[in-house]
From TrEMBL:
<protein>
    <recommendedName>
        <fullName>Phosphoribosylformylglycinamidine cyclo-ligase</fullName>
        <ecNumber>6.3.3.1</ecNumber>
    </recommendedName>
</protein>
<comment type="pathway">
    <text>Purine metabolism; IMP biosynthesis via de novo pathway; 5-amino-1-(5-phospho-D-ribosyl)imidazole from N(2)-formyl-N(1)-(5-phospho-D-ribosyl)glycinamide: step 2/2.</text>
</comment>
<dbReference type="InterPro" id="IPR010918">
    <property type="entry name" value="PurM-like_C_dom"/>
</dbReference>
<dbReference type="InterPro" id="IPR036676">
    <property type="entry name" value="PurM-like_C_sf"/>
</dbReference>
<keyword id="KW-0963">Cytoplasm</keyword>
<keyword id="KW-0436">Ligase</keyword>
<keyword id="KW-0067">ATP-binding</keyword>
<dbReference type="InterPro" id="IPR004733">
    <property type="entry name" value="PurM_cligase"/>
</dbReference>
<keyword id="KW-0658">Purine biosynthesis</keyword>
<dbReference type="GO" id="GO:0004641">
    <property type="term" value="F:phosphoribosylformylglycinamidine cyclo-ligase activity"/>
</dbReference>
<comment type="similarity">
    <text>Belongs to the AIR synthase family.</text>
</comment>
<dbReference type="InterPro" id="IPR036921">
    <property type="entry name" value="PurM-like_N_sf"/>
</dbReference>
<dbReference type="Pfam" id="PF02769">
    <property type="entry name" value="AIRS_C"/>
</dbReference>
<dbReference type="InterPro" id="IPR016188">
    <property type="entry name" value="PurM-like_N"/>
</dbReference>
<dbReference type="Pfam" id="PF00586">
    <property type="entry name" value="AIRS"/>
</dbReference>
<feature type="domain" description="PurM-like C-terminal">
    <location>
        <begin position="172"/>
        <end position="327"/>
    </location>
</feature>
<keyword id="KW-0547">Nucleotide-binding</keyword>
């Protein structure tokens, strides 16, 4: 690695180590309750499922991560609540689950009323976009344990059992239909911040006229239209492209995913790659690179998908050969 090259691991996040650590945790989760309302499926999908008679209840949990440090640098916390909601509800949409309730969790070293008010504004707007109630939450002042403020939440979803989409229906020949992101969303910010702080500033302007700070704070897109798509056509699987980039597709199926015609890469990712000297593989295994969500569906469903999500486009297909490939090159 040259002096100008940046990687996610060098910035402080080791995706491979994280996968091993999470696996070590999951392997310890062996207890299953007896009686009614058992767990459905395994731990490790985008959401956890609970048998509720003719319905399935689902839980997802996620947070804003180090995007909060960008908000702190700009003293603008008005949209991070949208990110918190989005990261949760998008994980539910992947399984065709409708989000209905949310609780937030804030851990901080010091409470600032103005900061909390702005966070609340974003949470409220995210709930509106997802048509969901915020039913409670927890705020903990943990001076000595927490340095700053961490915002996370847990989301409850529901769906009729027969309508849940797990990815089990994915077959070779299915098309991958990508949906654009609004920007960096809430993943890869540790690497993005490292490049900005090493090589520029949050006030640096891109060719599109926006500052790096504005680009990095753009709230995560909420893909609420997914529920209309699944009513209109057959969908075999879906993916929320979060931390790990294209590697998230491995969570859907043991078949392979070949991306031959990826979506256009937004300016923010081009700037990060060129300025940080980041390889194509590192970019596509860290960031969403302009595709925040994807449907995996038979060819005959594409027109219906695009009728509801006009900016969706075919980006590749499912293959017999396992793994993730970008224009023929394996992403590991």
């Amino acid at each position: 690695m040259t002096d100008n090259e940046h990687t996610y691991r060098e910035a402080g996040v080791d995706i491979d180590l994280e996968a091993r650590a999470v696996r070590a945790l999951i392997d310890s989760l062996t207890y299953r309750r007896s009686g009614a309302f058992p767990m459905l499926g395994k731990v490790g999908h985008f959401a956890g499922l609970i048998d509720f008679g003719p319905y399935v209840l689902a839980l997802a949990v996620d947070g804003v991560g180090t995007k909060m440090l960008v908000a702190d640098a700009l003293c603008d916390w008005s949209t991070v609540g949208i990110d918190c909601i989005a990261m949760n509800v998008n994980d539910l949409y992947v399984m065709n689950l409708e989000p209905v309730a949310f609780v937030d969790y804030i851990a901080t070293d010091v409470l600032l009323p103005e900061k909390m008010a702005q966070i609340g504004e974003g949470l409220n707007e995210g709930a509106r976009l997802a048509n969901m109630n915020i039913v409670g939450g927890e705020t903990a002042t943990l001076k000595g344990l927490v340095n700053g403020l961490d915002l996370a939440g847990t989301c409850l979803g529901v769906q009729k059992k027969e309508k849940v989409v797990t990815g089990e229906g994915v077959v070779p020949g299915d098309l991958i239909v990508g949906v654009p992101s609004s920007g960096i969303h809430s993943n890869g910010l540790t690497l993005a911040r490292k490049v900005v702080e090493d090589c520029a500033s949050y006030d640096t302007r891109l060719s599109n006229g926006k500052t790096l700070g504005e680009e990095l704070l753009t709230p995560t897109r909420i893909y609420a239209e997914v529920l209309r798509v699944t009513e209109a056509c057959t969908i075999h699987g879906m993916c929320h492209v979060t931390g790990g980039g294209l590697l998230n597709f491995k969570r859907l199926s043991e078949y392979g995913f070949s991306f031959t015609d990826p979506l256009e890469v937004p300016d923010i990712f081009r700037w990060l790659q060129e300025t940080g000297g980041i390889s194509d593989e590192e970019m596509y295994r860290t960031f969403n690179m302009g595709m925040g969500y994807a449907f995996v569906a038979p060819a005959e469903s594409v027109a219906a998908i695009q009728a509801t999500v006009p900016d969706a486009r075919v980006v590749g297909e499912v293959t017999e050969e396992p793994g993730v490939r970008l224009k023929g090159s394996t992403v590991r």
